[in-house]
Design goal:
InterPro entries: AraC-type_N, Homeodomain-like_sf, HTH_AraC, Tscrpt_reg_AraC-type_HTH. The chain has helices at about 55-65, 70-75, 95-110, 115-120, 130-135, 140-150, 185-200, 220-230, 255-275, 280-290, 305-310, 315-325, 330-345, 350-355, 365-375, 380-385; strands at about 20, 25-30, 35-40, 160-165, 170-175, 210, 240-245. With about 375 residues, it is an alpha+beta fold. The strands form two sheets. The chain has a four-stranded antiparallel β-sheet, with no helix packed on it. Strands 1-2-3 form a three-stranded antiparallel β-sheet, with no helix packed on it. The two termini are about 25 Å apart.
């Protein structure tokens, strides 16, 4: 299995009752009625508070303009200009995009099935190099694995958790932290965008077996059925969609190994650039770094401790990190990633010892985290790092 493969065959899914998260933040365990623990996969982020490009805002502004809303009105309160929307290097906070979402709802909220109609505007090209990395993947399963690994290069507010079992593939959409006033719109937008982009990957409609939304049908039921090819169930317990497991192996028509590898490298570079920290985020990251990389930290400094050291309240620190498009967990991940590579390439410490020095109780969650960061195992990384 290559560096970006997800071993879907190791996963089984039972009826979910409660969720617990591994310390690496990548895997959930679902405890079913039978007590069995089933593993599922989630993206490289657990919150929508991440910096993003402006293509999503440009998409929504374009939709509004078609409905008679001036660009300047759509961008009011964001600090963005029409010219800035075309800048491929521009970054904004998630809160800035939320400002545009609220303006869109205020200006064109009467458009039937608004979230679905906007979601259909998101295509592979909207996602730039991230989208091209997905479309040149060998098959749908590889594209999903890549999309989860680089999820922060997208624009979603809802977080999908992918469950794979003998009965099929289910994407459970977590939207509980999305602000209530925009939750229905963003849930519709993000789910339809996921469907649209996946259909683009396949070169034709994705064949779904089930679609469920956790909100009322309103004016969207018929339009959603037309888009998905299956009538959604509304007022469900969760928002989710399902497909047959066999589709994971479906080759993508634009698959190209050389282009895929080049796009992945560019995605990694983009992640690194976006991870360059300034201001209070840099201060937090610096305080998370131990004085000696090889020493690591048996117990990372807590969020409350960092707030105390910076002479701010935890609430204020969290607000500042949100504004910077990051979080304590994301910064801790960055530091662990950096230290892990230093220890694996520059010391003879065993993988177990590296895990302990990074604050993991055992090696398994560290290995999962390292594969999420780099696409390979610690052992394989060490072999590749040695001259």
């Amino acid at each position: 299995m290559d560096a970006l493969s997800v071993d879907f065959d190791t996963l089984t899914v039972g009826p979910p009752e409660s969720l617990s998260r591994d310390t690496d933040g990548q895997n959930f365990h679902i405890f079913g009625h039978n007590g069995r623990v089933d593993t599922v996969h989630q993206p490289d982020v657990t919150t929508w508070h991440f910096a993003r490009g402006t293509a999503s805002v440009a998409t929504m502004v374009g939709f509004a303009v078609e409905h008679g809303v001036p660009v300047d009105r759509m961008l009011a309160g964001t600090g963005l200009s029409a010219a800035g929307l075309a800048d491929p290097d521009a970054q904004i906070t998630a809160e800035t995009e939320l400002t545009v979402v609220r303006t869109l709802l205020r200006e064109v909220g009467a458009v039937p099935a608004l979230g679905a109609e906007v979601g259909r505007r998101y295509r592979i090209s909207t996602f730039g190099i991230f989208g091209y990395a997905c479309i040149t993947s060998p098959n749908l399963g590889e594209a999903i694995a890549l999309a989860l690994r680089y999820y922060r290069l997208g624009f979603a507010f809802c977080i999908p958790v992918v469950e794979v079992g003998d009965s099929g593939v289910v994407a459970r959409i977590h939207n509980d932290t999305v602000p209530a006033d925009v939750r229905e719109f963003l849930t519709d937008r993000d789910v339809v965008a996921m469907y649209q982009v996946t259909s683009d990957l396949l070169g034709g409609p994705l064949d779904l077996t089930r679609v469920e939304f956790d909100h009322p049908a309103g004016d969207r039921a018929d339009r959603m059925a037309e888009i998905f090819g299956v009538r959604p169930q509304f007022d469900a317990r969760y928002t989710s969609f399902a497909l047959d497991r066999a589709q994971l192996a479906q080759p993508l028509p634009q698959s190209n190994p050389a282009t895929w590898a080049a796009c992945i490298a560019q995605c990694q570079d983009l992640i690194r650039k976006r991870s360059t920290r300034t201001g209070i985020a840099a201060e937090v990251r610096d305080r998370l770094l131990p004085t000696s990389g090889a020493a690591g930290f048996a117990v990372p400094p807590t969020f409350d401790r960092l707030a105390h050291d910076l002479n701010v309240s935890p609430r204020t620190l969290r607000r500042h990190l949100d504004a910077a498009g990051t979080s304590y967990r994301a910064l801790l991940d960055e530091v662990r990633h950096t230290l892990a590579e230093e220890m694996l390439s520059g010391t003879s410490l065993s993988v177990d010892d590296v895990a302990v020095r990074l604050g993991y109780a055992e090696a398994t969650p560290f290995i999962h985290a390292f594969k999420r960061w780099t696409g390979t195992t610690p052992a394989a990384y060490r072999r590749g790092a040695r001259p």
